Amino acid sequence: MSKGKEKELVVSGKKNKLVKKGSTPTIQGSSVKIVESFEGPEGEEVYVPNWGVKVGDSFKDPAVCAEVLAHFAPPGVRSAISEMEADHFISRLMLSSCNLQALLAEGVTHFTKGMQEYEDASKKKDKMKASMAATKKEIDGFSEKELSLGKKGG
User: Fold this and answer.
1) How far apart are CA 122 and CA 153, in angstroms?
2) Which end of the chain is least crowded, N or C, by CB within 10 Å?
3) Per-residue pLDDT in tens (0 to 9) along the chain, 154 residues
4) What 3-state class would DSSP assign to 29?
């Protein structure tokens, strides 16, 4: 096995060797430090942000948000953005911001519509249950009348 295919990770205070065998490794509930990517064919390395965000952190803390934003994009994206001319960069920034706002607004509209449809269906279901219960009660009443008529006539 070549040294290029093997990386040392610090996982929950233990040193482990990770061997890439054509699949993306999953490290759940661990903190991975000092690792920028797992080696693979050029352009197919797995990007692992080297940030200080902890499991208990929240996006209510501006420092946590700054840390996430600073390391969110993989190096290839950061490189492409840093090479943009100022006019192109500001144009892309405005387009992306407007599209994000439009998507957010449309997403809220879709979610609200879906919730309203769910509430309407739930109300219809409740009405149908009540109607079925009333119909069952009416049928039970007819059955009782039929039985009493049968006893009187027989």
Assistant:
1) 46
2) C
3) 444 433 433 333 333 344 343 443 333 333 333 444 556 666 677 888 888 899 999 999 999 999 998 888 888 888 999 999 999 999 999 999 999 999 999 999 999 999 999 999 999 999 999 999 999 999 999 999 888 888 876 6
4) coil
Query: Cα separation of 13 and 28, whole Å?
Result: 14
For tokens 């009405």, the residue is 127
Q: Which two tokens stand for residue 61?
A: 């803390």
Residues pairing with 11 in the sheet: 14, 32
Tokens of 79: 């490189």
Structure tokens at 99: 């599209």
Q: What is the pTM (predicted TM-score) of this model?
A: 0.42
Q: Residue 76: CB partners within 8 Å, gap ≥ 6? A: 43
Identity of the amino acid at 82: S
- Residue 24 is given by DSSP the state -
Are the beta carbons of 63 and 47 closer than 8 angstroms?
no
